[in-house]
Design a protein that fits this description.
By secondary structure, this protein is α/β, with parallel strands linked by helices. The protein has 5 helices and 5 strands. It has a single domain, classed as Flavodoxin domain (Rossmann fold). The chain has helices at 14-28, 66-75, 92-99, 126-139, 157-168; strands at 2-7, 32-36, 78-84, 112-119, 142-150. Helix 4 (126-139) links the parallel strand 4 (112-119) and strand 5. The structure holds flavin mononucleotide. Flavin mononucleotide binds next to helix 1 and strand 4.
Length: 170
């Protein structure tokens, strides 16, 4: 399976540790894994101009780093969204990358998805989880699961090993 992880964190810290653990487990299980660091990309919000659904024929009028993400939405069998919780949601960069799939309608091959969240306090990612689940329902993609680490759990070897094992079960 071709798996793409969209990492919405601009830092190489807590979310990155979860992303690496997931990637290691999935690779051990024989999958091909790509990580796109959308948190450090320049991705603007959708303009709602509908160019993509008319003259653009599936192409967005905005020329930015989203051009690096669209191929993942076309080719990946599984998408993993990863983000720190910023004010009860994913980062603005990841949110923009999730919404800009609009130009192609929906991920074209993805049958499965997962969500990795890192936060300072527990249970603050409920908004992010709800949006993720709604998007999956809308797109007809199966939820492989959500892993949310908070506070001291971040970078804990025990939790990262659990993520590795979880991804190995793919
Ligand atoms: C702008 C901003 C907003 C944040 N909002 C929340 C929040 O709503 N709830 C929470 O528990 N932590 C919040 N945090 C803390 C981060 O989610 C937490 O430190 C996370 O582990 C950072 O992940 P990273 O190392 O990948 O950047 C916020 C941090 C920042 C910078």
């Amino acid at each position: 399976m071709k798996i793409t992880i969209l990492n919405g964190s601009p830092r190489k810290e807590n979310t990155a540790a979860m992303v690496d653990a997931f990637a290691e487990g999935a690779k051990e299980a024989g999958h091909e894994v790509d990580i796109l660091h959308v948190g450090r990309m320049k991705i603007a919000g959708c303009l709602g101009c509908e160019y993509c659904h008319g003259k653009g024929e599936g192409k967005c009028i905005q020329k930015d780093d989203m051009e690096k993400v669209i191929p993942a939405y076309i080719e990946s069998d599984m998408l993993v969204y990863a983000s720190p919780v910023y004010y009860f949601d994913v980062t603005a960069q990841l949110s923009a990358a999730m919404q800009r799939v609009y130009c192609i309608g929906k991920p074209q091959k993805a049958k499965k998805a997962a969500l990795l969240l890192s936060s300072g306090s527990p249970n603050t990612g409920t908004g992010a989880i709800e949006t993720y689940k709604n998007m999956l329902g809308y797109m007809g993609i199966e939820d492989f699961g959500v892993c949310a680490l908070a506070g001291e759990e971040n970078k804990s070897e025990e939790k990262l090993a659990a993520i590795r094992d979880w991804a190995k079960s793919l």
